[in-house]
Design brief:
single chain; alpha+beta; 10-stranded mixed β-sheet; two-stranded antiparallel sheet; 5 helices; about 35% helix; globular
């Protein structure tokens, strides 16, 4: 039986995307890495999804600016208000998704993103916007990482089971490309794709199919439809 060529292609794409960040991480100062990671992902998404526009900047709500967002996923016919530094002011109706990008994710980053995203859920004009968190790497252990999204490890069965979070998080989608190195034989335990259950906001579905970038790209494709 032959391999699924699209899966092979996305596996290769995921490796290349991570490799670009991995190399940049070894060449640039830490202070520059956040912005570098955003640019790498923004460029990749722009190449793939021609019916969407990808910019960095702010959403305007009732005349006020939102917190700055790493990547705003917008309609291709969006009204553009450019600012200095390559940033844009975007109308709420034009924005479909916001992606926060982290180079080496920490638990504090998850909490910070959740607090930041509260702004978009507090305004009627922006409640429709999907809120995503994208990480190239993470310092968080696998058990703690999965526990953040409602999956608890049980020693008796030596496996994870799903539980409801105590309070709803304002992160609709999370993806992590973590690799310990570029060696293809290393563990993929922390490569994750999780998506919030729309019927139960305190629960997440875990997709462990590899490559995880394939599930993420399929979700982006759905925004074009």
């Amino acid at each position: 039986m032959s391999e699924d060529i699209t899966k092979v292609y996305e596996e290769y794409s995921e490796q290349i995307l991570f490799c670009k960040y991995f190399i940049a991480e070894h060449l640039k100062h830490n202070a520059e890495m956040g912005r570098c990671g955003e640019k790498i992902l923004l460029k990749e998404l722009s190449k793939r999804f021609g019916m969407l526009e990808f910019v960095s900047g702010f959403v305007v709500c009732k005349g006020n600016l939102s917190p700055q967002s790493d990547i705003l996923v917008c309609r291709s016919n969006m009204y553009k208000r450019p600012l200095d530094g390559g940033l844009y002011i975007v109308n709420p109706i034009d924005c479909l998704m916001i992606i926060e990008v982290k180079g080496n994710l920490t638990l504090a980053d998850i909490s910070e993103t959740n607090r930041k995203n509260q702004y978009f859920k507090d305004h009627d004009e922006t409640k429709h916007i999907q809120l995503a968190l994208f990480a190239y790497k993470t310092r968080i252990g696998k058990k703690s990482l999965l526990n953040s999204f409602g999956y608890k490890y049980q020693k008796e069965i030596m496996s994870f089971y799903q539980k409801r979070l105590d309070t709803e998080m304002w992160i609709d989608l999370f993806i992590c490309l973590h690799r310990e190195s570029m060696n293809t034989s290393v563990s993929r335990d922390k490569q994750l794709f999780v998506i919030k259950d729309r019927q139960n906001g305190r629960q997440y579905f875990l997709d462990n199919n590899y490559p995880v970038i394939q599930s993420f790209f399929r979700y982006m494709q759905s925004l074009q439809e």
